[in-house]
């Protein structure tokens, strides 16, 4: 079974602004997520602590020695939605800042799903 992966529009904008080499590395990690979905674990995926969402996870991508992280969650339709991406190197507050952004974007996504069901 292949899993569906959606991109939040702000994540997609961020991804489009990255180098081709980084986009390629991210695409490779996303293909693994697409194949294994919710069963994918470490070292590729880990659940995040400090989030109000119990299912907020990070997809880990190494690119030229830098640790990139893609924050995502599975929605009620069992689709992964990638919410935030970034390089956490040299930023001790990266998670603190981006978990909040991911939570807001996931709430936005859920509201959109609810609206579509009406």
What's a quick, concise take on this entry?
By secondary structure, the protein is α+β, with helices and mostly antiparallel strands.
Give structural notes.
The structure is a single chain. The protein has about 120 residues and is α+β, with helices and mostly antiparallel strands. It has one domain: YaeB-like fold. About 40% of the residues lie in helices and about 25% in strands. It is built from three helices and five strands, in the order βααββββα. It has a five-stranded mixed beta sheet. The longest helix has 24 residues. The radius of gyration is 14 Å and the shape is globular. The protein starts with a strand and ends with a helix. The model has no long low-confidence stretch (mean pLDDT about 95).
Annotate the secondary structure layout.
Elements: E1 5-7, H1 9-16, H2 20-36, E2 45-47, E3 57-63, E4 66-74, E5 80-87, H3 94-117
Parallel strand pairs: 1-5
Antiparallel strand pairs: 2-3, 3-4, 4-5
Beginning-to-end CA distance, first to last residue: 28 Å
Helix content: 40-55%
Number of domains: 1
Biggest sheet: strands side by side, in what order? 1-5-4-3-2
Helices and strands, in order, run as EHHEEEEH
Structural class: alpha+beta
**Rg (CA only):** 14 Å
- CATH topology term: YaeB-like fold
What is the mean pLDDT?
Answer: 94
* CATH top-level class: Alpha Beta
